[in-house]
Design brief:
two-stranded antiparallel ribbon, Alpha-Beta Plaits, binds iron/sulfur cluster
């Protein structure tokens, strides 16, 4: 009897408490801006420097370039850019080293698929991943200009 009253007490106490559960996936989860989610690749900004692929600890980025079609301009433009999300650990290193912010993180995290092949994302897919782009991409946690306050 004592145990039952104790249990009822806990039930009554939590009845009016604020809900901690979410109606996901019906209501999308809002992630904080520091979240490391699936990347967005901006083709025109990429200078094909290969730094993102070189720093990637899981070697899941492959990219190729081609000569700039504009004869007035030097350097290469991006031809292909793929990320294998079977391997990507969303560590953020690729976006940190990118000198032009051609690759940035988003707050998107849903990648569930029935086939492993679907986890292989190409430039077209990564370039159209334009929702929930992280606002502060490279300066997260960095001191303000003029030193830490
Ligand atoms: S987030 Fe990390 S693991 Fe994923 S592609 Fe970038 S560097 Fe590689
Ligand atoms: S680091 Fe940036 S600019 Fe360099 S290849 Fe990767 S995405 Fe392109």
């Amino acid at each position: 009897m004592k145990g039952m009253i104790k249990g009822l007490g806990v039930t009554l106490k939590t009845l009016g408490a604020k809900k901690v559960t979410h109606a996901y996936p019906d209501v999308p989860l809002e992630m904080p801006d520091r979240f490391r989610g699936i990347q967005y690749v901006i083709e025109d900004k990429c200078i094909v420097c290969n730094q993102c692929a070189r720093i990637c600890p899981t070697e899941c980025i492959t990219l190729t370039g081609k000569p700039n079609p504009d004869p007035e301009k030097k350097g290469k433009v991006l031809d292909t850019f793929d990320i294998n999300f079977e391997l990507c650990i969303l560590c953020d290193l690729c976006t940190e080293v990118c000198p032009t912010e051609a690759i940035v993180m988003t707050n998107n995290f849903e990648l569930a698929a029935y086939s492993r092949d679907d986890l292989f994302k190409d430039l077209q897919w990564l370039g159209s991943n334009t929702e929930n782009i992280r606002e502060d991409n490279n300066n997260i946690g960095a001191p303000q200009k003029g030193g830490a306050k």
